[in-house]
Fold these 3 entries.
Entry 1:
Amino acid sequence: MTRTQEWWPNQLDLSVLDQNARDVGPYDEDFDYAEEFQTLDLDEVKADLEALMTDSQDWWPADYGHYGPLFIRMAWHSAGTYRTHDGRGGAAGGHQRLPPLNSWPDNVNLDKARRLLWPVKQKYGRKLSWADLIVLAGNVALESMGFETFGFAGGREDAFEPDDAVDWGPEDEWESTSAERFDEEGRLDDALGNTVMGLIYVNPEGPNGEPDLDGSAANIRDTFSHMAMNDKETVALIAGGHTFGKVHGADSGDNLGPDPEAAPIELQGLGWENEYGEGKGPDTITSGIEGPWNATPTSWDLSYVNNLLSYEWEPERGPGGAWQWTTKNGELDGAGPGVQDPSDKEDVMMLTTDVALKHDPDFRAVLEEFRDDPDEFQDAFAKAWYKLIHRDMGPPERFLGPEVPEETMLWQDPLPDADYDVVGEAEIAELEDLIAESDLSIAERVKTAWASASTFRHSDKRGGANGARIRLEPQRSWEVNQPDELESVLGTYEEIQATFNESRDDDTRVSLADLIVLGGSLAVEQAAAAAGHDVEVPFEPGRVDATQEQTDEESFEALEPKVDGFRNYVGADLPHDPEEEMVDTAELLRLTVPEMTVLVGGMRVLDANYDGSDRGVFTDEPETLTNDFFVNLLDFDRDWEPVSEDEEVFELRDRETGEVDWTATRCDLVFGSNSRLRAVAEVYGAADGEETFVQDFVDAWSKVMKLDRFDLE
């Protein structure tokens, strides 16, 4: 069956917003993963996983009698898809069991790892999500082989459909790389997390399958930086992970059958059927590279680091035909145990990506530090691993379970505890009077509240109004936030805050974060009243103000909008049309198609555009919450004409006089041109549509203002 998107491939794809409009999972709406997780006996779960580690199954035998290395790889490849650019990827959702990740070439045979976990998942059912189980298994695997982990937090939810909002890259073939994946300077596109389609990070053989050490080191640093990992964290992760297990390349990958999504129905979700030898154990084919990194592949020790630094390595073709590295003088030939029979010796090997760490001066310095200080290696890997498998969980209050460490990391965007009483109804009314009496306009208050709250991303739960980080670097200097105007608005809010707090004879205080949201909510109420609608915008206080020291400036830069269709802001050098970027932002805000539509229409008439632009402000009564945007957009008595070759700005001309009535951008006109968006716009633009529009705007606005209020859940 040919679908609509196939007939018109250039049609604006709104399907990612449909994921926010419905729950496709099997549980009812009252089901709460976090609550269920907290009823678990985590010690019992870990004991079951510990027993599983050495319970080798004939259908898929454990290397060296221990599944630990396999589960570490599974957990790493689940969490390691995260990237700071949009917060997508990562372990949340358990997406590794769904396409495309379940069929990535780099995830060959991880289908067996998850199938080995099924008895544990079956036993605990809804109390233990796959997302939690996959990374917990990796943690227990490390502990079972002598490593002391930093901790574990649960509460991840499971997804039941692929996350189509993730951009994995421009290629249409696995294990391919196109020039579009990199910029003019050869750096990986900011939006992506891996240098090769279908691989977790980089090609282990080296760039383009060649043993190029300089290129490999550059790729490693580039792709790990997209997870906000520095050199020390990068080396710790690679060295720590490669302390365990081996890679499999007994023969060419030509022996492997289709991946799970393409495999025949009788394989029941498993893939990569191996026709070489017995197809398992010593005959396993995974990466195509063959051999262990050391002689103790199921023990935590320094052997990987020592082997890498102590010997000279040279490239060779392994039995699977892939490039790998062997000791130059054969010192470690036959030093590794066989996967089934320890007396069957294997050569210890290294990947190009391993030797690249030794080759690069900065990476090598870290390796030498770890060799000289094993405790530092232990600590660095523990914290880097914890960051890897938890980075997409968001703020510390979402971390659940008895093994959550007391220490809070900067990458968790910590917030201070409130050491005061939160304002109540009487105080809120007093604050509203102070705001109303100030010189802040409705548009200024709306823009500031939106700028603060709309940084939220449901992908990794970062951003949002809580913390008032809009007053801190880097947000206060973002172009989209109009720094000069923002400084003035924040200055007025700070005066109101000081006036209120200093007047109290009790412990009640108001945070700037709450004031910013309250000011925006009051502005919406006033704009609705000006249009003849009496509405109340819900406001729940309790936000706190973060400090600059609690804010990781470098990683927060990733939250800066290149486009904000809601404020009609378009930056430079866009990879996609502005309307596509607007939909992407809406998806990160968990908006539906109607919610995105009503917010854009409302923001326009509230005069909340970037830099005071009149584009899309289709009303003679700005700062009044009317449905004028939709009424005038749908008026067919005039013609829209592009005013530039790039068709980014348009003018609406009267058909008779030729006079320009309005100007607009693509983020305005798409609500009239796209059939789905127009269908919604017609509801709001109808003669009886304004009341519905106002209430829907209030609901959508309130939703955005509360997206980061995990303390209310």
Note: The first strand starts at residue 246 and ends at 247.
Entry 2:
Amino acid sequence: MMKMDDLLKLPVFDGTTIVAGAKGLNREVHTVNMMDAPDIIPYLKSNELLITTAFHLKDDLPALLELIREMSRQNCAALGIKSKRFLGSIPESAITLADQLDLPLMELPVEPSLGDIVNKSLSHILDVRTTELHNAMQTHRQFTQHIMSGQGIPKLLDQLSSLLRLPVLLLGPYLQRISGRCTASTATRLEALLSAGGRFHVETSNFTAFSLLGGEGETLTLFPVYTHRQLHYLCIEGFVSPAERSSILTIEQATNVIAFELMKDNALKQNRRRIQNEFFTNFIGGAFSSSEEIASRGREFGLSIEHRYLCAVGKLDGRDKTSSFMQYKAEQDRIAEHLEGELVHFRYPLHLFTHDRAYVLLMPMVEEWKTLKPSFFALLEHLQGKIATYFGSELSFGFSSYAQPLAQIPVSYKEANEALYFGGMAGKTRFIEMYHPKEVPEILRMIPLEHLRKFYADTMQGFEDETLKDHHMLIQTLSVYLEAHCQLAETAKRLYIHRNTVIYRLEKCEEIIGRSLKDPEETLRLRMAFRIKALLPQKDGRME
């Protein structure tokens, strides 16, 4: 990047006098043009140095002043005039105007010629650009070699930090640290700047940089790293001005290489996530015939038969099930990726799977539950807060009450899912619900699945479609009413609605099922149906 004060150091400008606009000598100059025609204004370009004999302006002071004004509007670099040839001297009004606009106005000596000034200036600008391009290509080659040799993004960031002599971090879409050496003070400072709502200043270069300005001159400069899925940021601890052309080009090469590496890593992660989710789906679906097969397949995903596992199942509250599969899948992938990033920082190892619009966590019991419980609850609350902040969604969890051996994880999954289901039916949001063993569900698990499906379908046949006639709301009211031992006041309290509203909804339920809720046999049958629904696979329990 060439500045006017740098260009003026060339021997071809010896004898040049700055008569006005000295404050504008830090303007960039990209090209040099020579003018001796009266209609130059339409051809002005940004960051252009214009030199002239002013022959056509010698008797037209208003035209000279208009040229200066227009050059300022066009953000030209400077105006140089060989005044001795035709003007004699530059008019005072032109000097005053150029000073007001901070547009450098220069008086050029009689020699050399305008042609020499143009040729030697352009040649120097081209040499500088060529050197910049060569250095950028060299830097890009070095960064690429780091990646190709398998050293990865951390080593690249170390090299970039060494070149810039500033600490460098790679941040995720939500400004969470992904890679790069980060001292405790730097991490604290970044967190403080973000939590304080640091001011963003947009600077324009070949690509956009954001400066987060904190107190006492603290500055973090963020450069976007564009991939096909999400925006990441290269964080420089310190201010990087767009005027630092060499630094900007170096950072730009780094962001390009990092973007490709992130896309490659994402493709590998997506494939790995797909394979492990297929394993989990087959696992809980009973596809594995022996404990040996379970142990063998589990080892591929870091699961061990030597551990017992606690299972937690998380789902988004009130998520619209009418969204397209592609929309749902894209959001699920983004949330799963974010959860994975958060789980890395947990003190105990955790395994994440996605299944049936749910996020499944398996935690090996490496210590006693009373030791793990506070940290585990804190983690789930932390994840709820992050998803609410970054995705605007409420995440609820149900989890199994006992840690089970690897082969019994399908049982733990059903328990966690049941806890989640009943928490939602009770009208809760953003909750964490533990499974409480119940005698009836345990007995129901002994009944063949096809018999449970038939009993449920026969009992709830009036509610074939939860999306019609407020069926979902009515089912929820009916479930809470039965759980509250058919107490109207308690039902109204749990649902935060008026007692009369409860009565109205229960009357609608009676119309739909064609039976009286005052009949103990019927209420028992309905309670059994709700228990069965929690045990059935979702496609069976969902009334479509």
Note: The CA atoms of residues 276 and 471 lie 36 Å apart.
Entry 3:
Amino acid sequence: MALNVPGLVVMAVFYLVILGTGIWASMRSKKEEKNCTGGGMEITLLAGRKINLLVGVFTLTATWVGGGFILGIAEATYNPTLGAVWALMPVPYVLTFFVGACFFVRPMRENKYVTMMDPLQKRYGNVLSSALILPALVADVLWVARTLVSLGGTMSVILDLSYAYSIITSSVVAIIYTLLGGLYSVAYTDVIQLILLFASLWVCVPFLLTNPHSMDISLTAYNHTFQAPWVGKVELNEAGKFFDDFMLLAFGGLAYQAFYQRILSASSYTQAQVTCFASAAFCLVLGIPSVLFGAVAASTDWNTTAYGLPTPYERGEAGSILPIVLQFLTPTYVSIIGIGAVAAAVMSSMDSALLSSASLFSSNIYKNIIRKQASDREMQWVIRISVVAVGLCGTALTFLDNSVLVFWLVGVDMSYTIMFPQLVCTLFFKVSNGYGATLGFIIGLVMRILSGEPLIDLLPVIRFPGCRLDPEGKLRQYFPFRTAIAIISLLSILIFSWLASVVFNKGLLPESWDVFKIKRKPKTDPRTQEESRTNKGNEETSESKQILETTNL
């Protein structure tokens, strides 16, 4: 297969346009720095809290509709063991944005937080919050990895370009424009990327549906033709796993800094809510083309194509089904347009993950713990170094596994089972304290590790009801164990926080042992305070009279 020169030219133009937009946005960012009372750091991380509604909707949608979203939906729809019903991403994301808008936007904006870790740091102190930041940072690194994997696989199939070159080039471009302008560059490049993504995907759909190698997808939706029906089904014994995956995707996103970066950068509370509602609708619409890609692949007689047999699933290439479909079922120029869509999706998510992790490290660790007196210029360099470090780590991970779903699920898994309970307790339950948070974190982490994960060949030690071998021979939990762990973690935080509060406030343990300083200070009655002040004043007056009498004598 020869190198696709026209495709390379198109991709080069796309990267130049994105880079140019990022540079333009960085110039605006520098102008805003001069007029911002919050300093350059607030401009870099939150665009001065002045992102308008249209840009806000575009950047929030583009952040969620990334390469993992597009390729993951197509992969699940095509996979004979799953089907479209398991391509869950669009619907849970609607719940993510609605719950976020109704419950999480107000407390985060009213307190003028910069990152999602600010309330935890304020409540629990620096030491514990630093430990809680680690899962969030790991999730962001995995996010970078999964977006790059999706693009690397696509470019290597369609352009016949080396997987390594594809990933490294994309990573470098995203790192550069994120470095230059912070959230301004990320937001304005997201506008272009989302427009290109939407247009490119829908341009490809008619060519896919009318290609001569595939049957009508309405006929293969429920009939076994070339493989199992692409609609798929949820068996009764799989209902627990289906529910667990749904909840994971719906609430895991509420523990991502990228979400709060968008709602905190909006110019008002109402605008932040409208941004969430509009993004929910866009996610639904943008998920449709990927389902159609997977459906067409499942309806194709691969023996009549240049791809031949065995099928992509039998070759273990289900994760690259979208670029394979573009390459073998559409004209060359259409496949080039399609790769532009994937590239746009990847870049729009990767830059968000880069800036998200940089925000957490620079604001919550470096500024609040390591160097509280750090200047604004110093913080700008810390943010840049953080962006580069996360980008390099995420890029390195892409060479370990080529499945988009692996990085997708592991990253969101950590956010859901570990971070989400912590954030909920901190924002909505005053009883929560450092003792409960510590034990909740440990319990959640240990239970999640012991529950196993077939995607990374981690065998379960804790076997929930229904734990059995899947069709691939891997031991899998079919009970909604991740949701159970999240609930257990949340309850652990509240129960142990209450117990610790009782123990220290009742004097059952010495106050010197109270490392998180949760013992309540006794409240003094206002009348008692007034009487104390009056008595003190009378005593001072009496002393003054005695001094005068002594002097006269």
Note: The mean pLDDT is 85.
